[in-house]
Amino acid sequence: MPTDETLSRRGLLQRTAAAPMIVPASVLGLAGATPPSDRVTLGGLGIGSRGTRDLQSFLAQSDVRFLAICDVRNERREAVKSMADKKYGNGDCSMYSEQEELWARKDIDAVLIATGDRWHAPLAIMTGNAGKDVYCEKPCSMTIAESRALAVNFQRNGRVYQAGTQRRNGINFNTAFDLARSGKLGKVHTLHAEAGPGDRWPPATTHAWLPEEPEPPKQVVDWDRWLGPAPWRPYNSQYVQGKWRGYFDFHGGGILEWGAHTVDLCQWAAGMDGTAPVEYDPKGMGSDTPYSIECRYANGLKLVIRDKGFMGLGSCAFRMEGDAGFVETADGGKVEVPADLKSQAKDATREEAGEATTRHVRDFLDCVKSRRPARANALAAAQTHIACHAAYIAFQLGRKLRFDPATDTFIGDEQANRMRSRAMRDGWRV
Amino acid sequence: MAQGQKAPAMNDPRYGAAGEIAALPEAKLIEILKDSSATFFAKAKACQRLAAVGGPSAVPALAALLPDERLSHYARTGLEPIPDPAVDDALRSALSRLKGKLLVGAINSIGVRKDAKAIDALSKLMYDRDAEVARAASAALGRIRPGA
Question: Which helix (H) or strand (E) holds A320?
Fold first, then answer.
């Protein structure tokens, strides 16, 4: 019986490129199954709660075979293996604690990365450079410099990258884009992106450390590898149990948390995937909420990143305003427009709106096969994150900043330029 | 307060919590780096703050921590963004004194800063017996001279 490894899509493609081969009908999927030659083999890096949601979407696809999980936490390795083995009715899912072991698996085509934010860019880059396609959760980077490195590396290595910004494939968000692009809103002059509500996702992060607790054995939690490129600090179990958000060393705060989605929608809707705003003007400083950062693109288009003032349609609200009308939508699925445009804007049901992740995963898998750039490709993700980081830097400094997207440089502000990158811990680089 | 934070945050008996250290002027932050009684926490926070406010006068105190196993990365955190050639001099000078992962870190920082004066030293390190060092030197040279 051939193993998955010997009959992987990658392996078959390599062999058939060299010589024609005759394979049994079952291998070609004539019995109704997806043939191995059309199957995408997947590995996982750091699958926690959000990653589990992603993985469920992957496992639901008939042309995906999940082969291995790598995680620094033993309980997560076991949980993900259990999930995959249950799905396939076997015990084949491999478990690794070091990513290099996963990268060495030549039978794995693509990798789902859902670690904490500190690892996203370096792991995505290294995984892509190891020859794997990458679906990586957001926020995709910790700094402007990491964002640029992400785009540059994937342009060089030619791998498919999809950021976990699934709203790009959300039905109601797509309806809003179509409406704007049809010209029904007139000339679009302002975009609005909801940042994480300050009372839930404060924009500012803290430099504090939690008290030291005894470090678990490495095989239970590899604390050094959990930290990865982030600065070393003493172990505390709260971090590894998912409560790492809000700490400067691990998280970009509320602007990155939701801006990764909503600024991303604005960038895409505006056709700005290759650039970023040139001005960032923070308002309402001094408290967690309300606040906003008013941004402007080089062509005069305004982007307002704010945590309040939307129509209550759900989380991750997104709004476009033109001189002939507006459209606003959010995770609830409803698409609000002026009365004269009602017939043009069909609401998505909550269930349909909730299918964004599955549609986004499908888009990624189709691109793995076609080798087309995914809808949330590395360049698009990089530019979105550069805009979000620039906004967060303006927020931290409390002053208006001017930015040159061609050089990723703030104009005439040395302190802001210092905040574009962070030294990575010894041994890690992008 | 960070998400879900329940336990009290760490602080230094003399210099206080992270927020208090971040509010100190550059001279006081440098003093922390030189204070043998200051905790690892206080020195780490001082290094991070110097990344934002440090100038040439902070470079010697930061560079002195490059051989410190626990603080070397924090020292580089402080040094990397300081827009002064004294940082490049300090990192280049450290290349002959550091080994292993600390040397790799210094090489990475030189690459980030694109210090062309380090090309000769990095060219030699590209053939170091330590493969990690050799790889880091190669990557740094690639950043300094893209396409070379």
Answer: strand A318-322
Strands A133-136 and A110-113 turn out to be parallel
> Which of B9, B53, B112 is nearest residue A208 as measured by Cβ atoms?
B9
- Pairs of residues, one from chain A and one from chain B, whose beta carbons lie less than 8 Å apart: 107
Boundary (domain end) residue, out of B84, B108, B127: B84
CB B83 within 8 A of CB A414: yes
Q: Mind listing the domains of chain A with CATH numbers?
A: 9-166 (3.40.50.720), 168-203+251-418 (3.30.360.10)
User: How many domains in chain B?
Assistant: 2
Domain hosting B22: range is 14-84
Same domain flag for B27 and B78:
yes
Measuring CA to CA, which residue among B102, B101, B57, B54 is closest to residue B80?
A: B54
Among partner residues A231, A243, A425, which is closest to B4 by beta-carbon distance?
A: A243
Q: What is the mean pLDDT of residues A21-34?
A: 53
Which residue is associated with the tokens 């799905």?
Answer: A87
Structure tokens at B75: 């020292």
Q: Give yes or no for A407 touching B (CB within 8 A).
A: no
Confidence of residue A28 (pLDDT cuts 50, 70, 90): low
Which chain A residue has its CA at the smallest distance from B80's CA? A423
Between A197 and B113, name the one with better pLDDT.
Answer: B113
Query: Measured between CA atoms, how close is A233 to chain B, in angstroms?
Result: 8
> What is the mean predicted confidence (pLDDT) over A59-66?
97
Domain boundary among B84, B111, B126: B84
**Contact state of B22 with A233 under an 8 Å Cβ cutoff:** no
| B76 shares a domain with B34 | yes
Tens-digit pLDDT profile for residues A109-162: 999 999 999 999 999 999 999 999 999 999 999 999 999 999 999 999 999 999
Across A292-317, average pLDDT: 97
Q: Which residue of B has its CA nearest to A397?
A: B52
